[in-house]
Hints:
Helices cover 79% and strands 0% of the residues. By secondary structure, it is an all-alpha fold.
Amino acid sequence: MKDMKILALLTSIAMLLMLGCSNQTFFFAFSWNHLLFIWACILLTNDDVWQAGLALEGSETATLQGVVNKTSMLAALAVGGGMGGIWLTQNYPALSWPLGILGFIAVIVVYFVIMSNPLRAKQTAWIYAIVEGAFLGVLTYMLDGVLENMGFEATGGLALQAFVVTISVLISMLALYYFKILKPTKKFTAVVSVLTVGIFLTYLISFGMSFFGAEMPFLSLGSAMQGGQAAWIGIGINVLILGVASLWLIIDFGMVEQHVNAGAPKQMEWFCGFILMVTLVWIYLEAV
Length: 288
């Protein structure tokens, strides 16, 4: 597993360097970032990922309030990073490509650092939050520009709309979990995981098709801009994918509660905050 992570990291960086600063580069960064979050959600159901933290003895134990605090801090840093990314892109347009690429590489590096040892989240999760926020800020600002060039305009901007959707989903899923309307049972987790694997493969195929100048019907921005039936089908598919991404919050809440009740060390609060951020970012990407 460790060798595969290193290989994926080096491959990602190498492909970025080969592609250079182009539309294909940014599409690669966006697509791989998208795939990364789906992959992360699947990996986080594996108990082996948690072993480093659970093996730590003699430390103060984690609490749900601590997880909430850490997640809130990371979310605030991500929002700040996003605002900073948008500001830099607005005032220094030439930096948009370098910022996007460097942000993507930094996110990949920090992601693998944390996943290889959850205890490192205490030192690195804040870096992930800021850089990921900046990357998403640059991404949404550039997409706003693409829409504007096509004659479309998102009221308040894509960033604001996606942020509102993400917060709304978080509150809704938290309520459904709190009142036990949805429970992360083994069957629930298995079904969501299978659906997620299907989404992962679909995005992977779409990503591969892009290198040959082809587009996956109903999933590409081009299909959405065509209007008519294709656009409505695309919106429907995107809503379904957003729904699957949202269900991962139920699984995340269950994992967090399970490991807190099992006496996970205090440091694991940062890792719990990190996994919640991973899911929230996926939801944000689907909402854009």
